[in-house]
Design brief:
This protein is α/β, with parallel strands linked by helices and 757 residues long.
Length: 757
Amino acid sequence: MDARNNDLSLQSDYTSAPSSGPALNITDILATLRRGWRFPVIGCLIGLMLGASYIALTPALYKSSARILLDRSVNRYLQANKIVDEPILDDAEIASQIYILSSESITVPVVRSLNLAHDVEFVGPPDGGEGLINKLKKIVKQSIGWNNRANAGIDPNAAREQTALENFIKRLSVDRADVLNVINVNFTSEEPIKAASIANAVADTYIATTLEAKLNSTKIVSHWLQDRLVELRVQAMEADRALQDYRINLVNAGNGLPNSEQITSLNTQLTSARIAVAEAKARLDNIRRRPSEAVMNALVTDSLNNPRRGNAVAFALSSTDVVRLRSEYRELALKATDMESRVGPEHVAVVKLHKQMDELQKSIQAEERRIAESYADEYQMAKTRESELVTAMAQSFGEAETGSQAQVTLRELESSAETLRSLYNSFLQKFKEINTVQTETIPIQNAHILTRATPPRESSKNPKKAAAVLAGGIVFGLFLGAGVAVGREWAADVFRTPKVVEQITDIHCVVLPMLRVNGERTAPFQGRTKWTPVEEFVLDAPYSCFTETLRNVKASITTAQLVDGVKVIGIVSSVPKEGKTTVAANLAALMTSSGARTLIIDSDVHLRLLTAKLAPDASEGLIEALQDPSLLATVVFKRPRSGLDVLPCVLAARLPNAADLLGSAEMEQLLAAARNAYDYIIIEIAPIMSVVDVKMIERFIDRFIFVVEWGQTKRSLVLNALSESQIIRERFIGIVLNKADPFALRYVEGYKGGYYQ
């Protein structure tokens, strides 16, 4: 970029404060982003491309949902009426049902029933249809042995099914709806019909699995209770037999009492009567709690167990009216439901069917009441029969039981028999309840499908989502680019602003823009056709930012001269090629143009860049002047345009004792002669970290200027250089941050006015 005339000054306005390192704050981050604006822009473009690629390559997905209702009303009714002791569903149990819906007990049967292990959407294309990316993945896995270890000894069909199951679970989501006891079963697929069918299959499998599990558990409990009943019945009969045998022994020991055959007959009849009373009472209680289901159970079980009854109950049970009426009611209910789904609940035919259902319901209830009354009569007759037998037994025994020990034994036997009968009656009641649930025409089911899934109309690829993906990609790219810019800035560990230099070094700093060159000359300046040497740029651009900054440095040198008599200024840097030659030449030319007698000395005997730029044709210089300081005026080369005196360093080869030469008494004498002849003496010194020249010549230098290349020289290197030259640290006039990017300088602290051009 051309350094144009400008009234801007690069002098730093910050007050320097000692610090071990710059503090990271929002201002520094914003400044870094302004300088590295290309990275956020490129990041946004990359994010936009990624978002567009995602939208283009990702297939459209359709999401379908089925709703399952976990009904609490039946359980609440049964528990309130003490029919069953099954607890009501709570939040924890509903959460467990959500887990069950996504478990393998549900998903595996669905995958197998729908044959998803051979569906391309779930297992990918066949071997012949693999894409390039998949083939590369397979090759990489095989090369590292991953694929062989993972699939060693696995059946291909099982592996395919496992893959389908994993993809199936990824697309299946189960969550609770807004209503507490409603669960949503969601499935996403590339085909809308497939999404709906799979969601419905999951819901149907869950209903069937839970119903089967409930029936299986009921059967297990029923079988256990049945075995326990047989055992208790045998124990109760044995206890009654032992009691009666003991009574018979007591009777036989007395006079005028009934014989043992009569007592045995009465005892057998009493035992049978008590069992009949217990069974009749269990049936009657069950009918009173659950009349409809219990009556149907009784019609089935009693017709099988008591086919030859001749009393009123047998007559009532032989009636098939309840069965017929309930069958008609179910048929009407199915018709009404089907018709209502098609024409609505207010249709005349639907209303008529409901009226017929109400009439059938009344008839069923009347028939059930008649049958229930028959069971009540049966219970009363069994109770009366038991009372008669008990009275007969009491009359038969009379006062046969004598003796206190006999009475104690008799009471123990009676208590044992009564306990076993009560336990038998309790288990019989439980068995009747479970048997009723097991043999119901329509089993009680807590879960119902509230809404079946339907094929969705819109896919996930809607315009709003596409816009959101693109926006997300742009935001992601923006943050990525910003992160790269900030990370690059701080990872580079270089100087880019005078503020940071002053914070770290506690030395005043100015910044110079880079002068773009073509060969050895600058680009055309302000439309001129003249080519300007870089070393005399200040002469052609006296109002540019570059020149104004050097004037700032010159002003500091002038002030130091007035206060401390400073004449000799050393220009140093950490490493080579940081631009100290350009800084030294232009500073000396600026001093000469202001009327000051100025001499510039090339003391870098290793590179001698200043000599190559300002006095390329010189045949003698510094070495000859050191041998005889009186020859200084004859070996000085004068620049024709600026009038600057240059003391070059002409050598055929490098000197092994260069540092000793610079720190010699001859050098002191030469500088003493120069102090008498010139107002200012500018000396370019070899880099601090390369050689030890600066340590040898520093005692002859009044002040130093430290040149640091912008954006290239590491902070650690600068700090090491300053620590190496700790003895001259207090003699620094300032640090020149050289070769700054002109575009970045638009935002550097210290600029005033408009943008730098």
